[in-house]
Amino acid sequence: MDHQLILRNVTRTYDAENGSREALEDINLEVKPSEFLCIVGPSGCGKTTLLRMIAGLDYPTSGEIILDGTPVEGPSPDRGMVFQEFSLFPWRTVLKNVEFGLKIQGKRDIKRTAERYIELVGLTGFEHSFPFQLSGGMKQRVAIARALATEPAILLMDEPFGSVDAQTRNLLQEELLEIWKRTKKTILFVTHSVDEAVYLADRVVVMSSRPGRILEVLAVDIERPRKRTSGEVNALREQLLMLLGSHQ
Amino acid sequence: MKLTAVIRENGLALLPLILVLLLWEVTAGYVIKNSLFLPRFSAVIASIYTLRNLLVPDLLTSLYHFGIGLTLAFALALPLAIVMGWFRPVFRAVDPIIEILRPIPPLAWIPLAIVWIGLNDYAAGFIIFIGAFFPILIDSYSGFRDVPRVLVETGMVLGCIGHKKLIRHVALPYALPAIATGTRVGMGVGWMCVVAAEMFGVGNSGLGYRLFQKFYFLHQMDYVIAYMLVLGLLALVLDRMFRYFVEERLFRWKRGIVK
What we know:
The structure holds two protein chains of two kinds. Chain A is an alpha/beta fold. Chain A has helices at about 45-55, 95-105, 110-120, 135-150, 165-185, 195-200, 230-245; strands spanning about 5-15, 20-30, 35-40, 60-65, 70, 80, 155-160, 185-190, 205-210, 215-220. Chain A has a single domain (about 5-245), classed as Rossmann fold (3-Layer(aba) Sandwich). Chain A is built from seven helices and ten strands. In chain A, strand 1 and strand 2 (about 20-30) form a beta hairpin. In chain A, helix 2 runs parallel beside helix 4 (about 135-150) and helix 6 (about 195-200) crosses helix 7 (about 230-245). Chain A starts with a strand and ends with a helix. The relative contact order of chain A is 0.18. Helix content of chain B is about 80%, strand content about 0%. Chain B has helices spanning about 5-30, 40-50, 50-85, 90-100, 110-115, 120-145, 150-155, 165-190, 195-200, 205-215, 220-250, 255-259. Chain B is globular. Classes of the chains: A alpha/beta, B mainly alpha.
């Protein structure tokens, strides 16, 4: 279970009209096994790009991303991903969506495994529903179950709760912590919400924009379950907002 | 169902239909009084009965031609649609050719069909193929082209490495409704080519052959209209069957989007 992700001097530049544009500059980061790490930053800071590079959907211009001693080259089911947009296959039921990765990999006993993860996200009874019959929150739960079903070394989440309402969002955050506790997965969670980061993370990576750089990595030493309005939570939020504000 | 209930539920659809038929009957019988110009509806219905022994073989021949054309159209259009929709360069390379060939009316291909294939069932099938091919191709490649990026990337992250797996597990299921729509449209256009395809004497049976080469030359307009009605009704049945067997069953997942 001791999976380790290391980012070493990761830089990403894009070709622009007037020369090249740096999206990410010299990112160095070590993610500890079973850590819940949040990445916050203003929009355009490259946090999504960073996550996509770890997923293998994008690539660094220089530097390297190493998972368990092996450099990342292209996407693979050992890095699960939950996207911001709804990403369920609309032609597949909940069960068939969760089975997808297992089926592609030719795993056995896929129904039982899928059902276990559906239960984990609290959707038992909805196995045969189609995505159009589910609410936004339920869709993202299925996406989480689907990403976990192939038992990835690390779970990447790109603002997964960005398009659900505030109450559902709080609920999903609590559920995610519960899932994290039960599966001991390393989770990399990108968000633009400071509140979300403080509520969820072991450590928060704060990024600046243009070029995207790591400003600071803050440890959140607050006992769970955290109270969203407690003094220490507020103090940390204040600190994060200051960091982000001074670098706009 | 009781008759009153049938009328209550379908009155709006049935009543104008009955009125039109009555109007036809009366106009033909008492105003025009010339069965060459417009035979009466009742005479047309009677001809369907008179022609019952010809009807079935003709119908089977036409369905055979239709089957050849449509099978060929589907078998060629689908693979081409996959590569055109999925690989941008292929689209850019092939699209100009398609766009030049597409507006040519299928009937303009008749001389070439005769020269290339000869006066046989396959020449008729070829004309129907030309009619059905382009609608199937264009709707289908749109389906493959429009697969949302997030679904493709989800497929990749879940282990679909390479185009083959992505096409099979992500793009094809996504494109199926578009393929079905294209096939339905292609069936319609293909059926419209049946009469013309049989007109130029590829054999001595078929709805189009009989209608044009026999009935029209004998000026039996009641027979002509009887066959016209059969052609229309058959297309309606084919379309409904397709909708029932393919669209309703396969696309339960689309219900939220369509209805």
